[in-house]
Design goal:
The structure is a single chain. By secondary structure, the protein is mainly alpha-helical. It contains 15 helices and no strands. It is globular, with a radius of gyration of 22 Å.
Length: 307
């Protein structure tokens, strides 16, 4: 006697539609509830930049390093131009929305983009429905709602490209992986946290050394519109160097041990920078070195697959 096949009940189409509409309504209500919040960054940075775009035009805005109202930042915006590109596109919504809402619309679009990127990454491992649930769950995370809808930040944009980079690596397309990583770095330097993973791909011979040229080339291409608008190339190349000088803190309210080190002044800031960067390099190189170990003779003919 053959074992009976147990069929899982499937939701009918109208049930799926009802669930999706309910979830979408919940997301909209949740995000709208915090649209009125004006963060310090929005007050000091984003709103003046948007007003500069509206008053002086996109080209003039891209041609300069926009000032901010924060003395510690050396009176320089030191954001890379891609944010201004996004803000310039969002400025067209100023005809029917106030400035703060325009800022939030840009950041929320980043959250939606990142959710789509997450769904794309997950689709390589799980069924499409589960990938979609993961994307929806991402949009409901308190940190995402706070970052995008309350604070008006753009972390979701660079995170979305990081997810695409990982997804393309999992599909053995290392060229598009490096392109996505280059775009991510051009938006926020924090994207370099996946650099050990990319170095692992090279060491494990899943990618040639030549692909490491792609990210800096992509970064340069992302700066071209600002350069063509009149901003000096050296200024564009040194943005992240300027950032390292503008914020003399070990932690900017981050929920990690460095907050306690800074608050209790356990070590000087320069010493903490050296220790933190050194520890990060050691950990990153250790992770990347696993690729070499697994590719060495006697460790197998092929490195581990994450696809």
């Amino acid at each position: 006697m053959h074992d009976a096949v147990i069929k899982r009940p499937r939701l009918r189409t109208h049930h799926v539609v009802a669930i999706m509409v309910s979830v979408a309504a919940m997301i909209i209500i949740l995000y709208r509830s915090v649209l009125h919040v004006e963060s310090a960054d929005a007050h000091w940075w984003f709103l003046p930049w948007l007003r500069h775009i509206l008053d002086h035009g996109v080209v003039q805005t891209l041609s300069i390093n926009l000032p901010v109202l924060v003395p510690e930042a050396n009176n320089a915006g030191n954001y890379t131009p891609p944010y201004l590109y996004l803000l310039s596109v969002g400025s067209y919504a100023s005809a029917f929305a106030d400035d703060l809402t325009v800022i939030k619309m840009v950041s929320i679009s980043g959250a939606i983009f990142c959710a789509a990127s997450l769904a794309y990454l997950l689709s390589g491992y799980v069924r499409r429905e589960i990938a979609l649930c993961g994307a929806i769950a991402y949009l409901l995370l308190p940190s995402v709602v706070s970052n995008a809808a309350a604070w008006g930040q753009i972390e979701s944009f660079y995170t979305g490209f990081v997810l695409i980079a990982v997804a393309r690596a999992g599909r053995d397309d290392l060229v598009s992986c490096m392109i996505a990583f280059g775009v991510a770095v051009s938006i926020k330097l924090q994207a370099v946290f996946i650099a050990p993973f990319l170095l692992y791909l090279v060491i494990s011979r899943r990618a040639s050394v030549g692909v490491l040229v792609i990210p800096p080339v992509v970064y340069a291409l992302m700066m071209v519109p600002a350069w063509m608008a009149g901003r000096p190339a050296r200024d564009l190349a040194m943005i992240y160097v300027e950032q390292s000088h503008a914020y003399p803190w070990l932690s900017m309210n981050a929920p990690n041990p460095w907050t306690f080190v800074q608050y209790f002044r356990l070590i000087p800031q320069p010493t903490g920078m050296v220790l933190g960067i050194g520890a990060g390099l050691v950990v990153g190189l250790t992770i990347a070195g696993l690729g070499f170990v697994r590719r060495s003779p006697g460790a197998g003919t092929r490195g581990p697959s994450f696809c």
